[in-house]
Write a structure and sequence with these properties.
Blueprint lengths: L6 H11 L9 E6 L10 E4 L6 E2 L5 E4 L7 E6 L9 E3 L6 E5 L25 E6 H7 L4 H4 L6 E4 L6 E4 L7 E5 L2 E2 L18 E8 L3 H4 L6 E7 L8 E11 L1 E13 L4 E16 L5 E2 L4 E13 L3 E16 L8 E19 L5 E20 L8 E21 L3 E24 L5 E29 L2 E17 L6 E19 L2 E12 L3 H5 L1 E3 L4 E3 L7 E14 L2 E13 L2 E4 L5 E5 L2 E14 L4 E14 L13 E9 L3 E10 L15 E13 L2 E8 L21 E9 L1
Parallel strand pairs: 1-7, 11-14, 30-34
Antiparallel strand pairs: 1-4, 2-3, 2-5, 5-6, 8-13, 9-10, 11-12, 13-14, 15-16, 15-41, 16-17, 17-18, 17-19, 19-20, 20-21, 21-22, 22-23, 23-24, 24-25, 25-26, 26-27, 27-28, 28-31, 29-30, 31-32, 32-35, 33-34, 35-36, 36-37, 37-38, 38-39, 39-40, 40-41
Length: 732
């Protein structure tokens, strides 16, 4: 019901423009391993700059436009391994040979300032969690793997916790898995509960507006989880088994087999499973309703040719009896009896010329989740079981043309996403004093609903003068929404929105840059925000079919210094969200409304440095504030000021780490939150490699057995206390 634009013709002009520039010169390199063998198919990124290039079969690559030298190059392998940064002070004509040191075991890597597979705007805070780090720390869930990233917090407790970037939850942080959106009709947003980090090669995080490249859902940023690729030229078996006791009582197991079909193609298959008996808080008290189990499997195919790389993946995941712990779990218990995900993804990346790149990515998936709230019986209240079953299919198609020359880089593309076959069914069962079922009430909340978003976009970076890089991006999205039947009846919405950003990056001194950026984005409410009526994780919710889309005005600034393995970044942001979609509770039910404007602002600090004798240090901190404009009331999901420090050692056969987390008092809780006292926790871990086939891991989380809430939610359960994890893994 909003304005329409003639954006298709403009998009064609932008796409044609990508072929007009003529390449002049570039940095040419050749990557070799420690034995002098070429490294093919790896990504090379200039730290602090968007985009990545892929090496060919002979390890050769070209970077266009030519970086401002000196520069730091970050190399990420096909299976998520992050190699030690390379500091390049000067270049020579012709091909520059660069020899890499082994990853992980013999060096501490720097992972801030790079996201090879996310189109991040210049001022975004970027961070990469590599495969080696996940093997070292063995996070239980995706949100646990991101706990040391500045500006990333958690919404909710237990296995269903949702990662939140810069306090923008509820579908304002985009989550992607293997180039495909992870979409859920949960009010908290997608969590990837079913996702076992064992399957991942890396997790990339971009903090800041991503609406130009990705459309709706990317106000706060983008989280991209990428599975491991099969091993080329060899057969390999990788396995992992862990057991934890104390605060977290969970057993995990996973096996992956990769087999080379030819010298240029490979296939892999994996199986994984987890089972938790529940958790205990600090001091040993039970955390009720915290048990869960899940399992899954995947097949992945990789083909590399002289023209490009083709990937295909099929994955199945099942979660069962996933508890959602809360302070009142002994009164009303919320859990997810079933969560099922099926995904098919495929991609093609090629470089027809040194200056031209082509990408085609697509996915088709199915997702369903059952939510159950059980009011437990007591002397004055009978049992009641309320449940909702939400099912949906998703499809995406993304095509991008990239062109680079000595002065700039252009990426233009078409992005199609669709959520269809959305069904939601409700059920309420009442029992009498003898616990016999008396009545059953069924309701069709959503009979059939769909949302289709077609977007075209262009991103351009260029250097008009020495030491200055200007960046701009524009996107137009046309959204069509249909709801047939169900509680709200036949409804439809169409909307066309523009997104954009403009930024300037100035080189202040060697290795030091400053960036200023302004952006506009939008977010369409989810189908359940508009049309769902039924039980949710926190109570009964009723949608609002008349919700308007949110829009944003976002300003970011970044000051970055990087020299080899040492990096320092200071980031600041000030966001205004217009027509904020707010969940509120005037009585017994949760409702939705557009509530004027809200402002979110904050500062983030990141520092990392390699130290002598295999040691390395990392320090991250964040401060944020969010409030509604009309009454200055605090917003939900804004994390309290926090600081994280890590000391890590890595050697040829072993590694160790110490992580410290300090969280200040939260004295500005949101509408459904409560005050939280300050607390400090610590994790320690040690690993030893006996052989390539046997690596032992020992980890202690929450060493001091601290007792603190798992989140700021007023009904939050306590976080797990001290837990000890023992793991065995290796490669055969």
């Amino acid at each position: 019901m909003r304005r329409t634009l003639n954006w298709r013709s403009r998009a064609l002009i932008l796409l044609l423009f990508s072929f007009l520039a003529v390449p002049l010169f570039a940095f040419e390199g050749r990557l070799l391993d420690k034995d002098g063998k070429p490294l093919s198919g790896v990504h090379v990124t200039v730290a602090g700059r968007g985009g990545a290039v892929r090496t060919d079969a002979d390890g050769r690559f070209r970077i266009l436009p030519d970086p401002e030298w000196p520069a730091t190059l970050i190399v990420v392998g096909t299976r998520g391994e992050v190699f030690p940064p390379m500091y390049v002070s000067t270049t020579t004509a012709g091909t520059n040979e660069l020899r890499l040191e082994p990853a992980f075991q013999e060096s501490v890597t720097v992972t801030s300032g790079t996201t090879p597979n996310i189109d991040a705007p210049p001022a975004a805070g970027t961070f990469l969690v590599g495969g080696e780090e996940m093997e070292e720390r063995r996070p239980e869930h995706l949100v646990d793997a991101l706990e040391r990233v500045a500006g990333v917090s958690r919404r909710g407790e237990g296995p269903a916790g949702v990662p939140v970037v810069r306090g923008l939850a509820g579908g304002r942080t985009l989550m992607m898995l293997d180039d495909a959106r992870v979409t859920a009709e949960r009010r908290a947003g997608p969590s990837g509960t079913f996702l076992d980090p064992f399957v991942l090669g890396s997790i990339e995080v971009s903090r800041g507006p991503g609406s130009v490249a990705y459309g709706s859902d990317a106000f706060g940023g983008v989280i991209h989880a990428r599975p491991r690729d099969p091993v080329l030229g060899d057969s390999q078996l990788r396995y992992q088994a862990t057991s934890a006791f104390g605060g977290s009582q969970v057993r995990t197991g996973g096996v992956e087999y990769s087999h080379a079909l030819t010298s240029m193609s490979s296939i892999s298959g994996l199986l994984h499973a987890r089972q938790s008996d529940g958790s205990d808080a600090g001091g040993g008290d039970d955390i009720d309703n915290s048990a869960y189990e899940d399992r899954g499997g995947a097949l992945r195919y990789l083909l590399t040719t002289m023209r490009g790389v083709f990937r295909a993946n099929v994955a199945l995941n099942q979660g069962r009896d996933i508890g959602a712990p809360a302070a009142d779990s002994l009164v009303t218990r919320t859990y997810y009896p079933e969560e099922n995900s099926q995904r098919l993804t495929a991609s093609w990346e090629s470089s027809p010329t040194d200056a031209l790149t082509l990408e085609l990515r697509g996915s088709l998936s199915g997702y369903d989740i059952i939510t159950t709230r059980e009011r437990l019986p007591n002397p004055t209240t009978t049992r009641q079981i309320s449940s909702s079953d939400v099912q949906a299919n998703d499809a995406t198609l993304r095509a991008i043309v990239g062109h680079s020359d000595a002065n700039g880089r252009l990426r233009a593309g078409v992005d199609f996403t669709s959520r269809f076959n959305v069904h939601a069914f409700g059920r309420i069962e009442n029992f009498n004093l003898t616990d016999a079922r008396t009545t059953t009430i069924k309701e069709v909340s959503i009979a059939d609903a769909s949302k289709t978003d077609t977007g075209v976009f262009a991103l351009y970076d260029w250097s008009p003068v020495s030491r200055l890089t200007a960046s701009a991006g524009i996107r137009a999205d046309h959204v069509s929404i249909e709801n047939t039947g169900g509680f709200f009846g036949d409804r439809s919405v169409t909307n066309t929105e523009l997104s954009g950003h403009a930024a300037a990056t100035l080189s202040l001194a060697p290795n030091l840059t400053a960036t200023l950026q302004g952006a506009r984005g939008f977010r369409e409410p989810t189908l359940s925000d508009r049309y769902f009526r039924g039980v949710s994780g926190r109570g009964f919710v009723v949608g609002n079919p008349d919700l308007e889309a949110e829009t944003s005005t976002q300003f970011d600034g970044a000051l970055r210094w990087q020299r080899g393995s040492r990096s320092l970044a200071l980031l600041g942001y000030h966001y205004t969200i217009h027509d904020l979609v707010e969940r509120f509770r005037p009585g017994n039910d949760f409702l939705f409304r557009n509530r004027g404007e809200a402002k979110v602002k904050g500062i983030e600090l990141e520092f990392a440095s390699e130290l002598p004798r295999g040691f390395g240090v990392q320090v991250n901190g964040a401060w944020a504030r969010g409030e509604a404009v009309d009454d200055n009331a605090a917003l939900d999901d804004i994390a309290a000021p926090n600081l994280h420090a890590a000391l890590r050692w890595a050697g040829a056969s072993g590694s160790a780490f110490v992580h410290l987390f300090a969280v200040a008092e939260d004295d500005r809780p949101g509408p459904v939150e409560t005050n939280r006292d300050s607390y400090t926790t610590a994790d320690v871990g040690f690993g030893w490699t006996f052989t390539r086939a046997a690596e032992l891991r020992l980890q202690v989380r929450n060493v001091f057995d601290k007792r603190y809430p798992g989140s700021a939610d007023a009904n939050a359960a306590l976080a797990p206390g001290r837990s000890v994890m023992i793991g065995l893994g290796g490669t055969l």
